[in-house]
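Q:
My hope is that you can spare some time for a protein that puzzles me. I hope you can help me see how the letters and the tokens relate. Thank you; the sequence and its tokens follow:
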Amino acid sequence: MKILLRTPLPRYANELDEVLKLFWPVEAFAVEATAPLTPEDEAKAQFTATPATADMETLTHLFSETGGGWRCAFTLRGESTVREQPAPDGEPLVVRRLQKRLCKLALYDLCKQLTGYQPPWGSLTGIRPTRLVYENMASGLSLSESAGALTDVFDVSPEKAELLRRIVTVQQTLPAPAETDADVYVSIPFCRTRCAYCSFPGEALGRGRQVAPYLNALFAEMTAAAQLLRDRGLRLRALYIGGGTPTALNEEAFAALLAHTVACFPNPPEFTVEAGRPDTITVGKLTAMLRCGVGRISVNPQTMNDATLRAVGRDHTAAQTEEIFRLARALGFADINMDVIAGLPGETTADFAYTMARIADLNPDSLTVHTLAIKRSSRLHLEGAPLADADAVAEMTALGGATADALGMEPYYLYRQKYMAGQQQNVGYARPGAACLYNVDIMEETASILACGAGAISKRVFTDHDLRIERAPNVTNVAEYIARAPEMAARKAALYR
């Protein structure tokens, strides 16, 4: 589909484009303003710079405010939809958000009318739908009413609304972050090989020549972050070492990483290491983690089908996954997470069911069911790999949820991504007592995070006004990070000025 959007409100072009993509692959998208541009419109002028072509279909948008009410209409392919509502009072940002919502819903109505298709998440295009549940609860609705309202307002399927209700139910049982709490994230941006679906800023380990200079820079930044915690009177809530694959480091470097981490951030209430790929995990690394107080690890197969593992560039077997999982259990790890991905290239529902059966036999304490998202920086995108069939992916994610239920787990966090197979979601499931606070904090954005290392993003959550969040990103390139690590520490200090 190629679309020329004619609109008096080009400031919402991004969001309207995302609504179209719920129904069609949008190959080209141009915008023609039908009213004078505001400063906000000017800031999004990249759309007006996309030239319209003769083969584009015209999507006409009309918006008016008369008699204290809003009227929004869209027309495409000779069909039209209209939505009307009273114009709200309140702060300009709130009014603008409601105006954007009305436009998205009116366009969604038209797309659904033209295609007869109902996306599983309705008109929602954001990555954190739980926020809408919390907003509804803040307005006085019960939890069940708040989740159900998403079906009424946004056309979210009842199954997805129920999933959100279950997630918020679990989240309400977890300790909420205090204003003085902060999480710490440490990034190790190295992997033995790069998976075909990966879009994270990281590098293949190669001969490991960058490891020593990277750790030197990282340790200095971590030391500065620890001092910042003390100076600002912040209390460590959760500590998470991720990547990349932290265990891609050799045993000596990995032990040094753990030692410096616990020296900087002693006695964390929760300490997770994303151990990740089983071919990087050794007895020495597992015992080092136990010695340093790591309570939670991930052993991530993504699939238990060896042919798929080879196809996506994961240099290990399903048997290795089982071996390492059982070794970690035998050594004393009582909290082990496993990640799987629904919709991997070439996999059928039967293949995914086989993965789930082998995961169930291992009996992990938490399970994360991802849906494949083919990002533009991934090898799968560059190779033109198609996303899996939507119905098959829906069956796979349902199988993942059923497996979690059978293992006594409840869903406790959820997020969505662009370019996701079947427009599904990523869900973390856990047994009672095994929910990862860091995962909830980062997905719900309710706790501040001091993040160290290449590609890490620090966040400061302000509770004084509508949960305002400010960010301080680190550079993603490893060599650039090594050269500029003091600047990354300074960015965090400025964030907490």
Remarks:
- The mean pLDDT is 93.
- The two ends are 48 Å apart (CA to CA).
